[in-house]
């Protein structure tokens, strides 16, 4: 593996939340997010907060600034709890919603999986995937998935 492709993993750091609980925080994944940028693809990091079997995941676009206290506060606030039985990517089914409620936010692990899958889809599968996904999940939580779909469509048409 070339030196450019090797990314240094950070040792877990400790974070104390507003309730004075101590969490172990670490970078668990680094994905290149392809989007129009002058300096190339952005790097999306997946940050995990862990404490006594409780796990929360957050996404960070950028470098190592996620380790700074203000960034950790924001990441923790936005972190999604992960149920112990759904820790694997895509393990939980889409929850049912009532007609008068907004659809649930898609879990970050599932969104990351979908972004990878979209990169391999053909036009028909892409249309079906988009229709089903955007009906079941909150659209605001699917911004990165929308970008991946749009990028794949441009790739297929070009």
Keywords:
158 residues, 2 domains, five-stranded antiparallel sheet, 4 helices, 5 strands, 23% strand
Distance between the termini: 31 Å
Q: Any low-confidence stretches, pLDDT <50, length ≥5?
A: 1-7, 86-100
What's the overall geometry?
elongated
Q: Helix and strand succession?
A: EEEEHEHHH
Rg is: 17 Å
The domain count comes to: 2
Largest sheet report: 5 strands, antiparallel
Helix residue percentage = 25-40%
The DSSP helix count reads 4
| Strand-pairing-aware structural class | alpha+beta
Rounded mean pLDDT score: 75
Estimate what percentage of residues fall within beta strands.
15-25%
- Count of extended strands: 5
Topology:
Layout: E1 13-16, E2 22-33, E3 42-51, E4 54-61, H1 69-78, E5 80-82, H2 108-118, H3 123-136, H4 143-157
Antiparallel strand pairs: 1-2, 2-3, 3-4, 4-5
Describe the structure in your own words.
- The protein is α+β, with helices and mostly antiparallel strands.
- It has 2 domains: 82 residues, no CATH class; 70 residues.
- Helices cover 32% and strands 23% of the residues.
- It has a 5-stranded antiparallel sheet, with helices on one face.
- Strand 1 and strand 2 form a beta hairpin.
- Helix 2 packs parallel to helix 4.
- It is elongated and about 50 Å long.
- It starts with 12 loop residues before the first strand and ends with a helix.
